[in-house]
């Protein structure tokens, strides 16, 4: 099926390229080169009606202005690094501190802020975005070359593959940051949607949402999604006793995935009982950050001028564990010359 091309405004005087992938079952994925970003994903419910199930905006200016990372490829280091410092190959590295005293998602000018090069592969029904992050960008060592490829198949699979190399010892933990709402973007909160996470353990966080280094069992906690349950079932138990606020705006934590180190393995299964839309996610990464959008509110005006709300969507950011450069017992995010970085996410969409 032919890949549609369009222009999505300009950034810094340069065109933002846009693409639409479609399959024979009515599914479609819209992508833009600013942040190698997924901006729309349409899929039918059990009644056959299509809905756009990813949060986002209708214009490039809103993407430039936002700090939500809607749909973006984030890096070099997705998630958080305490105090923006770590050692790699015996050298102390200090990177941009863009969330208080800490580093988040690559810094103020991370991969999500870049205008990526783009190329289409009609035979694979895929779009490949690529970019170069020079030595010293946001404080990171080494020149990194990264690509992010999106492919949509006729068996209703969306594959996202991030591949990279470096010319000097560095860290690389690119994450994909789409917010999903299977009922349709702008339709309200997601607490009734049912989630399974294929994980027996999670990594607790402190008041700055930084991992403490502990790895704890999910058994008997609000973090236990080993069998399907509504996302909101235990979310109120995350309230901070001192302030009454939801810790991290609800869920904003890393789960340690079962089967890590053995290629693609199950990560999550989620379904909206009302529409019947669902997907299963597999990845080759060891962890996933499940975030329920607790910091969203009606000030964020999404597509079709719909105001979003708290818990308007959720992310599955497959990854190395947060702050992994500072914990020897966490999966390593180090990359070295001659070593390939290869991060895969495979979404299989279904209707129940």
> What is the terminal-to-terminal distance?
26 Å
Provide the number of structural domains. Answer: 1
Q: Roughly how much helix do the residues carry, as a percent range?
A: under 10%
CATH topology: Beta-galactosidase, Chain A, domain 5
Number of helices: 1
Indicate the proportion of strand residues.
35-45%
- CATH architectural type: Distorted Sandwich
Shape: globular
Mean pLDDT: 96
Summarize this entry quickly:
With 352 residues, the chain is mainly β.
Description:
- It contains 1 helix and 27 strands.
- It has 352 residues and is mainly β.
- The chain has one domain: Distorted Sandwich (Beta-galactosidase, Chain A, domain 5).
- The strands form 7 sheets. The chain has a 9-stranded antiparallel sheet, with no helix packed on it. A 5-stranded antiparallel sheet has the order 1-2-3-4-5.
- The radius of gyration is 19 Å and the shape is globular.
